[in-house]
Amino acid sequence: MIPQTDPKAAYLAQRAEIDTAITRVLEGGRYILGAEVEAFEQEFAAYMGAKNAVGVASGTDALILALKALGVGPGDGVVTVSHTAVATVAAIELTGATPILVDIDDYYTMDVEGLAATLKGWSVKGVTPKVVIPVHLYGQPADMRGIMELALAHSLIVLEDNSQAHGATLDGTMVGRFGRIAAYSLYPTKNLGAIGDAGVIATDDPVLVEALKALREYGWRERYISDIAGFNSRLDPLQAAILRAKLTRLAADTDRRRAIAARYDAGLAGVAGLELPATRPGAQPVYHQYVVATDRRDALQAALKEAGVGTLIHYPVPVHLQRAYKDRVPLSPAGLARTERAAGRILSLPMFPQLTDAQADSVIQAIKASL
């Protein structure tokens, strides 16, 4: 069976370095925060071109703490997309703020026209728009030029959800560098993944850094004394050490993901009824996922399973149609037609750096035989 993703393969590819990193932490005797976490934060910030990074316990916590550091809470509106991992919306609600969901564009990222319609026709009583969270889904950069222009016009803060786009660029600028702050998941299957949960926040703002470091540890600025109400969301030193090892391979892994995507592009071009992922002009995606679309999605997925090819659907039900959120979360007046259509058509093919050319070719042949 060709898996859709394979975090164990990522470990095996760097087994010696990762095992050495784990041993270093175990023998060092510091098991909460400390030098290992600080070193990862510095190295990650340097890679992403940010002045600072703050490690936290998960990507969801990265969003929550970033919002809290921005002062987001009850009465504030946060605009994002429904076509995303539910964590994006859950994080907003966990701050007490109200999520407002907009549609996607042809690249599965925030539709600028839908955002404009939402801001122009704002009708959520008792809620003032404060933050926009574009999600760089599948490693595809969102239209940050258009989003930043609207955010500036409406005095909104931009928090980028960069959980699936570590290292992607738009017009030569790393995504995560457009807004005031960016949140990253370091979940095991992400382009930069821990062996367990982990997350990180990047920003150039020293005031936000100070707030984030307090928020992740009970609001402490002095040990055992809480200046503000905080959380327990510290990046584990073991995960930090593993991530430091894996960060050294991120550029090479990104190149490999792009090579696999190019192989899929070439091998699947012209297959009737199959839509391949588009690339926004000026963008350099990092292919966290390679997502095709077809009206025969369920049949194709079943046929690929029979042929020994694993696939996943990211995501089968838009957030606004899930039981926890349906009929209570405000939606863009422009509607979410593209979001709802995509959910029934998309399919994520096998994509991870250790996927071989032969395996990718097998996926291509299986698709051609199935459509």
From TrEMBL:
One of its GO terms (biological process) is polysaccharide biosynthetic process. CDD domains: AHBA_syn. It comes from the Bacteria. InterPro entries: DegT/StrS_aminotransferase (IPR000653), PyrdxlP-dep_Trfase (IPR015424), PyrdxlP-dep_Trfase_major (IPR015421), PyrdxlP-dep_Trfase_small (IPR015422). The modification N6-(pyridoxal phosphate)lysine is found at residue 190. Keywords: Pyridoxal phosphate. The active site is at residue 190. GO terms for molecular function: pyridoxal phosphate binding; transaminase activity. Pfam families: DegT_DnrJ_EryC1. Belongs to the DegT/DnrJ/EryC1 family. This is Erythromycin biosynthesis sensory transduction protein eryC1. It comes from Oceanibaculum pacificum. The lineage of its organism: Bacteria, Pseudomonadati, Pseudomonadota, Alphaproteobacteria, Rhodospirillales.
